[in-house]
Specification:
By secondary structure, the chain is α/β, with parallel strands linked by helices. The chain has six helices and eight strands.
C-alpha cells in the first residue's frame, strides 16, 4: 500500500504484523491495539520501532501511558464519513504532545487529505499510487490557513500581525 509521509511518497519502514502471527526479531512493526494491550511492555522491549493501529472507537486513555515510547500511531478511518480519527489525531498532537508518526489508514480519500494534515497526521496509507501522487501535490497547494490547529502553521491573522509588527518596528 503506498504511503505519503510529510507530503511526499515514501517507503513504509513499518511491517504490519497480524494478530497471531510471529513477531519479527527486529525492525519496525505495526500491531493492532488488541495485540499491543495484551502485553505492551514486552512489545516495547523488543528491538526495533513499534507502532500501534488504533481503532477510532477505542479510548485513547488506554494508549496514553505508552505514547512517549511509540514510534507511530496509525488511526483508522473505517469509512470516509466517520471522522472520529480526526478528533483522536488532534488530541494526540495538541493535548498529549505526541511527536511520533501519526498515520491515517483505512478509507483515506483525496478530498480529505488536507484536513488530515491540519488535524496532525503526517503519514497516510492510500490504496492507489495515483492517490499517493495526488496527495503529495495537495500538501504543497496551500500555505496560509485561517483556522489554528496543531500542525505548526501560523494562521493568516498571526501572519498579518507579524507583518504589522515588523513594519511598525522600522
Amino acid at each position: 500500500m503506498p504511503l505519503v509521509k510529510n507530503g511526499k511518497i515514501a517507503a513504509d519502514i513499518f511491517v504490519h504484523v497480524p494478530d497471531g502471527a510471529e513477531m519479527p526479531e527486529g525492525g519496525a512493526v505495526l500491531v493492532s491495539a488488541a495485540r499491543f494491550l495484551e502485553d505492551p511492555e514486552a512489545l516495547l522491549a523488543r528491538v526495533g520501532e513499534l507502532g500501534v493501529i488504533w481503532p477510532n472507537n477505542r479510548d485513547l486513555d488506554d494508549l496514553l501511558p505508552y505514547l512517549d515510547r511509540l514510534a507511530a500511531v496509525a488511526l483508522v478511518f473505517p469509512s470516509f464519513r466517520d471522522g472520529r480519527a480526526y478528533s483522536q489525531a488532534r488530541l494526540l498532537r495538541e493535548r498529549h504532545g505526541y511527536a511520533g508518526e501519526l498515520r491515517a489508514t483505512g478509507q483515506v480519500l483525496r478530498d480529505q487529505f488536507l484536513f488530515m494534515l491540519r488535524a496532525g497526521f503526517d503519514a497516510l496509507e492510500v490504496n492507489k499510487e495515483s492517490d499517493a501522487e495526488a496527495f503529495a501535490l495537495t500538501a504543497k497547494r496551500y500555505s496560509v490557513f485561517y483556522q489554528p490547529t496543531g500542525d505548526g502553521r501560523i494562521t493568516a491573522l498571526h501572519r498579518r500581525m507579524q507583518q504589522r509588527h515588523s513594519e511598525s518596528a522600522r
